[in-house]
């Protein structure tokens, strides 16, 4: 999935939440499979009710839920799914009170340090949820327009949100700032298998595993999509993308199950080989989407290149980013790629009067200044040059000749006042 390839390669903690969610679903599936004997209360079958129930797997599931909360906010989907799946297992008489207790205890043990932090800082727990929720007047008007009235337009708001998120599973892309909206989230073949597979699992929703996938997909779309602003938002919906591929896989598995009926046992491998072209096609489509189409467009290349240049020169230069309102130093690419580099946002040109070269205590002399100016702020270069006329400006381009940014540099000096060479080339 090109969506997962992308989010695995940028410095966000969303992809860890996906891994924890997969592990959580797997462990619950194992618990269900190991609990083949239903719990009975019949006195004549009391021995059956005392059969050892798997505690290790349910305990690991609880630890997964608790530890997952230390990553992306989307991990909060797991405890919600856990309540639904626990009820399902109880309804099917596949769960004991001991297992439920171990599950809750494991969550508590793993989550307790973070819970202690949240108890001292309640806004840290709720502010992000409140900030992206559609259940407030500001967000409603952001989505529907300033004429929207609370709560009169709530039905229309939910309908717009449902449509927007369902389109993510048809033709639409990720509209967040982290990817490209005009790249469809899923390739056509995967969507074909998904929608047919969805019909299959809906028809068999009384089975535990199919029910689990419906819970995963349904709650994920509701909590991470319909109830949040700026949908469809890839960083939030990414937690349910695995379910899409699993549901598509169920459709292919059903085709395989039907095909093997027409071949003797010795030739069943031929039926499996029929699925190989599907795997090859989806691999090719997703590979081309990310490594060819996305790579040719080169979005955010300027931020990445700036971050690397800042990192290369962090020993000799103090960097100022002239990027607002398009780019800020708090972006993950700067915090991770340019780790430990001294970077400041230059939000207002009035700040120039307060900027001076800092003393370099390690190398002697003074550190240099490097002003990274995005194209949208190119007009500010004149003021920077007027404040520091001894500097030089250099443009950075991508391989298609498009200007990424301009760096205006005042070189670092040694103890004698002589300029020290820059780490990056001047071309």
Descriptive tags:
five-stranded mixed beta sheet; 54% helix; 427 residues; alpha/beta; single chain; 18 helices; 5 strands
Please give the count of helices: 18
Q: Tell me the major beta sheet.
A: 5 strands, mixed
What portion of residues belong to β-strands? 5-15%
The N- and C-terminal alpha carbons lie at a distance of 37 Å
Overall, the morphology is elongated
User: What is the typical, i.e. mean, pLDDT?
Assistant: 88
> What oligomeric state best describes the polypeptide chains here?
single chain
Residue ranges: pLDDT <50 for 5 or more in a row? Answer: 43-51
**Strand order of the biggest β-sheet:** 2-1-3-5-4
Order of helices and strands: HHHHHHHHHHHHHHHHEHEEHEE
Structural class: alpha/beta
Rg, please? 28 Å
Percent of residues in helices comes to: 40-55%
**DSSP, total strands:** 5
């Amino acid at each position: 999935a090109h969506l997962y390839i992308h989010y695995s390669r940028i410095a966000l903690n969303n992809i860890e939440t996906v891994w924890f969610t997969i592990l959580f679903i797997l462990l619950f599936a194992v618990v269900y499979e190991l609990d083949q004997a239903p719990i009975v209360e019949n006195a004549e079958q009391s021995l059956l009710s005392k059969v050892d129930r798997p505690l290790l797997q349910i305990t690991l599931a609880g630890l997964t839920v608790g530890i997952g909360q230390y990553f992306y906010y989307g991990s909060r989907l797991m405890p919600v799914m856990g309540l639904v799946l626990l009820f399902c297992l109880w309804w099917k008489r596949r769960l004991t009170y001991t297992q439920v207790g171990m599950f809750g205890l494991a969550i508590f043990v793993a989550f307790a340090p973070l819970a202690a932090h949240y108890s001292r800082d309640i806004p840290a727990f709720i502010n992000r949820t409140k900030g992206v929720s559609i259940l407030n007047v500001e967000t409603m008007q952001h989505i529907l327009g300033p004429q929207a009235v609370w709560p009169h337009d709530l039905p229309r708001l939910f309908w717009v949100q449902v449509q927007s998120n369902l389109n993510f599973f048809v033709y639409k892309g990720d509209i967040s700032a982290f990817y490209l909206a005009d790249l469809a989230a899923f390739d056509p073949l995967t969507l074909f298998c998904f929608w047919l597979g969805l019909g299959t699992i809906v028809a068999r929703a009384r089975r535990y595993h199919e029910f689990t996938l419906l819970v995963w997909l349904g709650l994920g779309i509701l909590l991470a999509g319909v109830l949040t602003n700026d949908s469809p938002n890839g960083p939030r919906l990414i937690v349910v993308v695995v379910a899409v591929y699993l549901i598509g896989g169920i459709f292919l598995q059903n085709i395989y199950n039907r095909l093997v009926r027409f071949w003797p046992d010795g030739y069943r491998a031929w039926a499996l080989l029929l699925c190989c072209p599907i795997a090859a096609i989806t691999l090719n489509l997703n590979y081309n989407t990310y490594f060819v189409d996305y790579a040719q467009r080169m979005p955010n290349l300027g931020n990445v290149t700036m971050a690397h240049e800042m990192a290369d020169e962090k020993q000799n230069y103090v960097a100022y980013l002239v990027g607002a309102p398009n780019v800020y130093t708090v972006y993950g690419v700067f915090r991770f790629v340019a780790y430990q580099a001294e970077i400041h946002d230059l939000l207002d040109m009035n700040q120039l009067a307060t900027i001076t070269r800092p003393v370099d205590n390690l190398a002697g002399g003074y550190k240099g200044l490097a002003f990274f100016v995005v194209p949208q702020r190119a007009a500010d270069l004149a003021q920077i040059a007027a404040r520091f006329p001894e500097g030089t400006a250099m443009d950075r381009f991508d391989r298609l000749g498009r200007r990424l940014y301009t760096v205006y540099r005042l070189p670092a000096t040694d103890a004698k006042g002589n300029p020290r060479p820059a780490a990056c080339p001047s071309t």
